[in-house]
Specification:
The chain is of the alpha+beta class. The protein has a single domain (6-62), classed as Ribosomal Protein L30, Chain: A (2-Layer Sandwich), CATH 3.30.1390.20. 28% of the residues lie in helices and 27% in strands. It is built from two helices and three strands, in the order E-H-E-H-E. It has helices at 20-28, 44-52; strands at residues 6-11, 37-41, 57-62. A three-stranded antiparallel beta sheet has the order 2-1-3, with no helix packed on it. It is elongated, with a radius of gyration of 12 Å. It starts with 5 loop residues before the first strand and ends with a strand.
Length: 64
């Protein structure tokens, strides 16, 4: 049985001049500072959160 797909989300820009909604989205992804990364399950929920702040984060797919 194959494992679940994973994605790596990395914050690449500051959230200083962003709206509160965008800051909350980055925090919900578990990112705390620039160049901080999190490995998350590949789900529509996380994909939608990343799509809401594409100018602040990068997304990499991890093949298992």
């Amino acid at each position: 049985m194959a494992g679940k797909k994973k994605i790596k989300v990395t914050q690449v820009r500051s959230i200083i001049h962003c709206t509160k909604t965008q800051r909350d989205t980055v925090a919900s992804l578990g990112l705390k500072r620039i160049r901080h990364s999190r490995i998350l399950e590949d789900s529509p929920v996380y994909r939608g959160m990343v799509a809401a702040v594409p100018h602040l984060v990068t997304l990499e797919e991890i093949k298992a």
